[in-house]
Design brief:
The longest helix has 23 residues. α34 runs antiparallel to α35. It is globular, with a radius of gyration of 33 Å. It is α/β, with parallel strands linked by helices.
């Protein structure tokens, strides 16, 4: 069809060349709708291109794409620009057949290129193609490289408009992009189609991704054709790792995000919608109506959901997937499971083992290119850095990889033994242990192979190591040494646990993370094997689960008692770390009929969630513990639960609900001599009275709480109460603001001397509110910022959001909307994430700020999206808060 004649190979420009690439926008649709007219139009398009580009000494190399794109080489950048402008004018002035209007986008880039057999190759060509893909019909784009060589030699009345620095798909370095502006070009075009990383929650890869090139391509091809693709295979085959890598590659095609939903710890199928809601950061209301609520929230979005580990909730996952795909047509689902989910329209891809080496391939360089060998070497050198593949050990390494069928988990388990065994010795042991499987006729069962790999390590254990190995499966999300010593019993002495754990680590059955405390965990497949071992020991299983509940309840109370002390941040961090274990124990305790243990675990759950700013999520366990303990709960525990629930109610702006609970807690604490709980209850009653504007009652409760604190030498609590007294003096119309400042100074002196970061953050925020009430806005902002920095160290999302909202309000009332808009938008996003009722107030302030700045709704939404990406630590830094309010406004 083409009338173009390829350039003479011998005459192609060499060295630094300027390339022009063109493409007809919407040509596929035109071919479908008007094929005859399109054929005529394309022939005329080619004639105009040949005439125009030859006039400007451009050489058409050959057609690209589906017959409607061109690739032209020029010796100078100025001639390329002139040619592009002339070609655009010719296209615009042409009378096209049957009403067709060809809109051609053009891109120009200058650089070195490889010339071979009448064509060009290399990064320069790739960048020009990606630049063309970013444009729109009628638009001429210029790279930064071309602009730098042509700026002083622009033809005629031509000018350049800077469109910003953008990422181009598949290219690492960002590109400056300029638009050629001439009389024949349209003055405005839609935003460039450049690549930006979609929002996601994919974990950071801690080890290299080895091989799987074909599997990656196969998954991408299936996702292009099907709405749901399920990766099946045995545990340890690498389904999760492959799915995450596939999801990472899909980021460029999913503007609304790529989201990993981990289902391994989901035992109740009804919790799947909630897990999806949490992973996608959807509003809490999205999961209250089950999966239909989730579907409604993502109905018009284009995103990828990865449902990982579906096998234990298979039917529920199928139902969820079908509901999502029926209600949200632009959503894709990638699932991993040991078997297909059975969802309608599901495409299933079984993940094979890694390619194993040929027995005859002994050359180390060639052998290292094999997938299974590459993975084994990567993991082996991580354990033993001096290990290398040599001519001497190549045969043994081949034997290891072949005997283990190239299964990733099996290879990693074997590689870990290189620090204690020579390759040939390791190969011999594997051959001996796998005699039955390797001697079988026909195909091997990968499930049996993986099970045998784990079982082999298990059979090498002593009886005590096996006992510990099975009992550790009761933990969810890992464990500490202290917890292992509390939970694992029977024939195991507490003092032997560390030695036994070390043995399990050496035998690659337990992983150790050298954090501040030290953290142990199982790979999921090994944990599943361990659970099976525990299930075979009926009496042991009952006893170890009871010990787990008891240990986690005790752990919770230890950390809860550290609240409202200088060690509170440490306690909260430990509670958060053990969140999965506490939740598992809480669920188990409900079936054991022990309301006191349930209450202790609820207090731990609430403390960890509340101090991270997730007050709404903290309410359900406390409410359930109060319900289950009705009439039988220990009165001291009930008082603590009531205080916790009253505090949550106040956080959620419900003083009416908080009052009766705080009063009952105070009565119980007083009757049973629990001074610490009574102090908190009196404090809560004061806060309730303050919200009701009953200042006399507030003062009475605060003074009583302060008296009890000082009587018991609880200086941390006393300092926080002085903060509350300062708040009272500020809010009381008859209060003394100078006295309020004295209270704050006294509180800060104690908190800083006792290193009470939690209390200091609260007092600084209150001090800022006092200065704000005095119209001393810069001083107020200073206090808010100092408070926010402490809150970020404590990872307290609610605290950071609160201080940022106050910080923005101070500058807004000072008439400086430019300084107010970023903290307010960031605070709003944090409040949205934690579902706080304070969101509406902050959104109102933000609305005032953008109105003062004259922003359009679109500009405001773009800015909100930018602020949603910031993390806690960055959010309260001056560099962030003082950066330009929006990119467009800064240009």
């Amino acid at each position: 069809m083409k009338s173009l004649i390829p350039a003479d190979v011998t005459s192609l420009p060499t060295g630094t060349v300027t390339f022009l690439m063109t493409d007809i926008e919407g040509s596929t649709r035109l071919w479908e709708e008007r094929p005859r007219a399109m054929a005529l139009a394309l022939a005329r398009h080619d004639e105009l291109a040949k005439q125009t580009f030859e006039l400007y000494e451009g050489q058409i190399i050959k057609a690209r794409g589906e017959g409607d794109s061109l690739f032209v080489a020029f010796t100078t950048a100025s001639s390329a620009i002139a040619g592009a402008i002339a070609f655009g004018a010719a296209l615009q002035n042409e009378e096209w057949p049957d009403g067709i209007s060809l809109r051609v986008r053009q891109a120009i880039h200058t650089g070195e290129a490889i010339n071979s057999a009448g064509d060009y190759y290399g990064p320069t060509i790739n960048r020009c193609a990606r630049l063309r893909a970013a444009g729109h019909g009628g638009q001429i784009l210029l790279s930064g490289a071309t602009k730098s060589v042509v700026a002083a030699r622009l033809p005629g009345e031509v000018s350049l408009r800077f469109l910003g620095t953008h990422r181009l798909k598949d290219l690492q370095d960002a590109e400056e992009i300029w638009q050629v502006v001439a009389d024949v070009t349209a003055p405005d075009f839609p935003p460039l189609r450049t690549w930006t990383e979609a929002p996601n929650n994919l974990p950071k890869a801690l080890t290299s991704f080895i091989g799987r090139a074909k599997a990656l391509a196969d998954v991408a091809a299936l996702l292009a054709k099907h709405s749901i693709v399920t990766l099946t295979g045995t545990g340890g085959a690498g389904k999760t790792r492959l799915s995450i890598e596939c999801a990472r590659l899909a980021l460029t095609d999913m503007p609304d995000g790529v989201w990993l939903v981990e289902l391994a710890d989901i035992s109740d199928p009804d919790q799947i919608p909630r897990a999806i809601q949490a992973a996608l950061n959807l509003p809490a209301a999205a999961s209250t109506g089950g999966i239909l609520g989730v579907v409604e929230a993502i109905r018009d979005q284009r995103l990828l959901i990865v449902l990982d580990n579906c096998e234990h909730v298979l039917h529920a996952c199928a139902n969820v997937a079908e509901a999502i795909l029926q209600g949200a047509p632009n959503v894709k689902i990638l699932a991993t499971s040991r078997e297909a989910t059975g969802a309608h329209g599901e495409a299933v891809l079984r993940i094979p083992s890694l390619a194993i080496p040929d027995e005859k391939t002994l050359d180390p360089t060639e052998l290292a290119m094999n997938e299974a060998v590459a993975l084994f070497l990567d993991r082996a050198t991580a354990q033993a850095p001096n290990f290398t593949l040599t001519q001497e050990n190549s045969k043994a390494v081949i034997q290891i990889c072949r005997n283990l069928d190239g299964i990733p988990l099996a290879l990693e388990l074997a590689a870990a033994r290189i620090r204690a065994l020579q390759p040939q010795e390791l190969a011999n042991r594997l051959e001996d242990r796998f005699r039955l499987l390797t001697g079988a006729k026909g195909g091997r069962s990968r499930h049996q192979t993986l099970h045998a790999t784990i079982e082999w390590s298990y059979r090498l254990l002593t009886d005590l190591e096996r006992d510990l190995f099975a009992q550790l499966s009761v933990f969810t999300g890992g464990w500490s040494l202290a917890l292992a010593e509390r939970v694992c019993g029977g024939d195991i002495d507490e003092f032997d646990v560390l030695d036994l754990l070390t043995a399990l680590i050496d035998k690659s059955l337990v992983s150790f993370e050298a954090s501040a405390e030290g953290r142990y965990s199982y790979p999921e497949s090994i944990r599943a094997f361990s659970r099976d071992q525990l299930a075979m020991r009926t009496e042991d299983q009952t006893a170890v689960r009871e010990r787990h509940v008891s240990a986690m309840a005790t752990f919770c109370m230890e950390k809860v008692m550290m609240q409202r002390t200088a060690d509170e941040p440490i306690a909260v961090e430990q509670l958060v770390r053990e969140g999965a274990n506490i939740l598992a124990a809480f669920n188990q305790s409900r079936t054991m009929g022990d309301p006191n243990r349930t209450a202790q675990l609820a207090l731990g759950l609430s403390a960890s969630r509340r101090r991270r700013g997730y007050q709404r999520n903290a309410v359900p366990p406390v409410d359930e513990a109060l319900f289950l303990g009705e009439g039988v709960l220990d009165p001291l525990l009930k008082a603590k639960l009531l205080c916790e629930r009253a505090g949550l109610a106040l956080d959620l702006l419900s003083s009416v609900q908080a009052g009766p609970m705080a009063r009952e807690a105070a009565d119980l604490a007083h009757a049973h001599g629990d001074t610490a709980t009574l102090i908190r209850a009196e404090n809560l009653l004061g806060q309730v009275a303050l919200e009701e504007l009953d200042y006399a009652t507030t003062r009475a409760h605060y003074q009583e709480s302060l008296r009890l604190s000082e009587l018991g030498d609880s200086w941390i609590e006393a300092a926080r109460l002085r903060n509350n007294l300062g708040i009272l003096e500020r809010r009381d119309p008859n209060g003394d603001k100078d006295l309020a400042a004295q209270h704050y100074e006294a509180a800060l002196a104690i908190q800083r001397s006792k290193h009470d970061l939690r209390g200091e953050a609260e007092t600084l925020n209150s001090y800022g509110v006092l200065e704000y009430s005095r119209a001393n806005y810069p001083r107020a902002a200073e206090h808010y910022l100092a408070s926010g920095l402490l809150e970020s160290k404590l990872e307290h999302r609610f605290g950071v959001a609160k201080t940022l909202s106050n910080y923005g309000e101070a500058w807004l009332d000072a008439g400086e909307a430019e300084k107010a808009v970023r903290p307010l938008a960031t605070a709003e996003q944090f409040f949205i994430q934690i579902q706080s009722p304070y969101r509406d107030f902050t959104s109102g302030l933000l609305g005032k700020a953008v109105a003062m700045l004259g922003w359009t709704p679109a500009e405001t939404e773009d800015f909100r999206a930018e602020c949603a990406a910031v993390d806690l630590e960055v959010a309260v830094t001056l560099d962030y808060l003082q950066s330009p309010s929006k990119t467009k406004g800064a240009q």
